[in-house]
Design a protein that fits this description.
The protein contains 14 helices and 16 strands. The protein is α/β, with parallel strands linked by helices. The structure holds adenosine-5'-diphosphate and aspartyl phosphate (PHD). Aspartyl phosphate binds next to loops.
């Protein structure tokens, strides 16, 4: 079995959906994971924003705009009157549900239910499309098998058991369609795997059914060596290892959700990144093979905050680091980079909801400085300990850029530098010129 995930741009119009239909019908029993049509989740987030503020006029305007977009898509998507009418009914029922929130209390639970509508609609529309084409497809609702636990981590055992049950129950189907992104939480409420989470769904589904391969179909021909949104002349990498892909995804390569590689790595299921608009392009294969030595790619992660704790008294004492880390653990805030000196510890975080409380706690150990608007530039590759010159190349490329922190040697796949976000694009371009 192969799991094929199509992102928002890949199902972003009637025309695109028809192309996806051609790609998934290759005679095999595949599982298709779909995101919401592009722009939908962003609009649903905006609608939720209006509803929180009780700005019903603003909410209704957005809701009607989105509904109209879907009604237009229906006209282009289906050929027969029967399916056009089925599509319209489906849209009406989802939008009546969304409109119902303009009359009631609005909390995070309602927000999550609204955000789920994008994937519920795209998968139902796609299922109708395959049915109209005479393809024997089945919808298997993600809300029946995708679950996260109290720590917001996927419940792998539950997912495996329930997706396999769903597939068995629909044994006569040729193509299985399910929603990316959405799930239930440990209380059974509708929840999600965070923005961009459909890749994560694909990976968890792939592991749940022990797939031959997990394919992530998007709007670019694979993982590029640098961020194509900021740098010209980037190129796709034909092969990278699980570790390299995980570092790139975590440090900002938007093509993959940060958590999507780990489940595939643990189950040793290859992940292939493909371009829906150019299916013949080779794409990128992510697997356990390490590949050649050297620098492979660069990514950047924004919205980084640096926290510096200065304490002449405590640092030399053993146990100091543990106390610092415990505070971040207490507030469930992951640390990305860390450096130490004799009198200070500097570290970076990207989740700042609890920064005020963390700062108060840290002040018990010394003075605390907070720096915002920073970016981590992550240089990824296979740096074996004996090889020389990589650091020199990197710092030569960054000679005109103020560097705030450096992390080298933490893993053999990653060198990270912290820069001001205002210098990020120049840093990415300069590294591109010097390294590739
Ligand atoms: N290193 C990279 N390689 C490829 N794409 C990247 C990279 N870094 C950022 N991107 C961006 O990721 C986009 C694809 O991700 P995304 O927009 O989430 O797709 P989808 O909607 O299919 O999930 C590309 O269009 C590209 O601009
Ligand atoms: N629709 C969700 C989930 C997702 O993964 O979308 P995409 O595959 O288009 O990045 C989002 O926009 O966050």
């Amino acid at each position: 079995m192969i799991v094929l995930k199509f992102g928002g741009t890949s199902v972003g119009s009637a025309e695109r959906m028809k192309e996806v239909a051609l790609l998934v019908t290759n005679g095999k029993k595949n599982i298709v994971v779909l995101s919401a049509m592009s722009g939908t989740t962003n609009t649903l987030v905006e609608i939720a924003g209006y509803l929180y503020k009780k700005n019903y006029e603003g909410a209704i305007e957005q809701i009607l705009g989105l509904e109209e977009k879907y009604n237009k898509t229906i006209e282009e998507l289906y050929y027969s009157k029967e399916f056009k009418s089925k599509g319209r009914e489906l849209i009406q029922s989802h939008f009546n549900y969304i409109k119902s929130f303009t009359q009631d209390m609005f909390t995070i639970y309602e927000e999550k239910a609204i955000l789920a509508q994008g994937e519920l609609i795209s998968t139902a529309l796609f299922h109708f499309l395959l049915q109209e084409q005479g393809i024997n497809s089945c919808l298997i609702p993600a809300l029946n098998f995708m679950r996260i636990d109290k720590e917001n981590e996927p419940d792998s055992f539950y997912i495996k058991e329930n997706i396999q049950r769903e597939i068995k129950e629909h044994n006569n189907c040729d193509i299985f369609i399910t929603q990316g992104f959405i799930c239930r939480n440990s209380y059974g409420e509708i929840d999600n795997l965070k923005r961009g989470g459909s890749d994560y769904t694909a990976s968890l589904v792939g592991v749940g059914v022990n797939a031959e391969e997990i394919q992530i179909w998007t709007d670019i021909d694979g993982m590029h060596n640098n961020d194509p949104r900021f740098v010209e002349n980037t190129y796709p990498l034909s092969h990278i290892s699980f570790d390299e892909a995980a570092e790139l995804a975590y440090f900002g390569a938007k093509i993959l959700h940060p958590s999507s590689i780990l489940p595939a790595k643990l189950a040793n299921i290859p992940v292939r990144l493909k371009n829906t608009m150019q299916p013949e392009a080779e794409g990128t294969l992510v697997s356990s093979k390490t590949g050649i030595e050297g620098i492979k790619a660069i990514a950047a992660k924004d919205n980084i905050t640096a926290v510096k704790i200065k304490s002449g008294r405590m640092l030399l004492a053993y146990g100091f680091m543990r106390k610092v880390f415990e505070i971040f653990e207490m507030y469930k805030t992951p640390i990305d980079m860390i450096t130490t000196s004799e009198v200070a510890v500097s570290l970076t975080i990207d989740e700042t909801q609890n920064l005020a409380e963390i700062t108060e706690e840290l002040k018990k150990f010394g003075t605390v400085e907070i720096d915002t608007d920073l970016s981590i530039i992550c240089i990824v590759g296979n740096f074996i300990a004996e090889s020389k010159g990589h650091a020199l190349q990197i710092f030569d490329a960054l000679q005109n850029i103020p560097i705030r922190m450096i992390s080298y040697g933490g893993s053999k796949h990653n060198v990270s530098v912290l820069v001001n976000t205002s210098d990020k694009v120049e840093a990415l371009r300069s590294l591109n010129e010097k390294l590739f």
